[in-house]
Amino acid sequence: MKEIKAPPIANGRTAEIYSWKEGEVLKLFYDWVKLEDIKNEVRIVRTIHACGLPIPTVGDLIHVNGRTGLIYQREYGDNMWKNLSQKPWRVFDYAGRMAKLHFQIHTRTIQGEIPFQEQKLFAKIRDAESIPSRLKSKALSALETMPNNNQLCHGDLHPGNILMTADGEVIIDWIDSSIGNPLADLARTTILILGAMETPQIKGSL
Predict the structure, then answer these.
(1) Is 27 in a helix, a strand, or coil?
(2) Could you tell me the residue ranges of all domains in the chain?
């Protein structure tokens, strides 16, 4: 089992990111993330990478500091949120670029096994401890009426998951991706951005 003592270069909801070997980063998952979900991420990322979308390649699964991690190709560049905080006048340009990326995702043909969106949403709603039972029932009932589609969805697309590199935008963090309704994917992005816009960090920079 390897160890790492340097601080992370970034962190997110499910993992911390560390510098690794030349041209690589380590995505080190928190203890509460299931091993099954991490293995699913490997399979999903390799499937999506094969369809030509701009995403980093994923390597080996390893254990570091008693936690499970994935080796990823390193992409050099800040995320879109950071660039936007430094250049707020480019908000409409960045919005258009993110919309084009969303369109690219939703129009890709996938040859491989990707989870179904409805099943993932059902599990997330069912397992959400902070949602009262009556609201869960309403949400699950609404989910049953959502039209099913067979298009690739990212599931967590927001400016923090888009890296601005010298070669163009790169989309990261595909653990919530699925096959389903692109309108639901867009709704998820809208909620995430509206919520982020209300945080002091974002409000203070725009």
Answers:
(1) strand
(2) 10-73, 77-203
For the entire predicted model, the pTM comes to 0.86
Is the domain defined by 10-73 classed in CATH 3.30.200.20? yes
Please answer whether residues 96 and 36 qualify as being in contact, where contact means their C-beta atoms are separated by less than 8 angstroms: no
pLDDT tens-digit readout, 16-66: 999 998 999 999 999 999 999 899 899 999 999 998 999 999 999 999 988
Residue 52 vs residues 76, 110, 177, 178: alpha-carbon distances, Å: 19, 10, 16, 17
Of 87-101, 136-150, 156-170, 191-205, which gets the smallest average pLDDT? 191-205
The widest CA-to-CA distance across the chain, in whole angstroms, is 51
80 in helix, strand or coil? helix
Query: H or E segment at 28?
Result: strand 24-29
**DSSP letter at 34?**
-
Q: Which residues pair with 180 in a beta bridge?
A: 151
Q: Report how far residue 109's alpha carbon sits from residue 56's, in angstroms, rounded to the nearest whole number.
A: 18
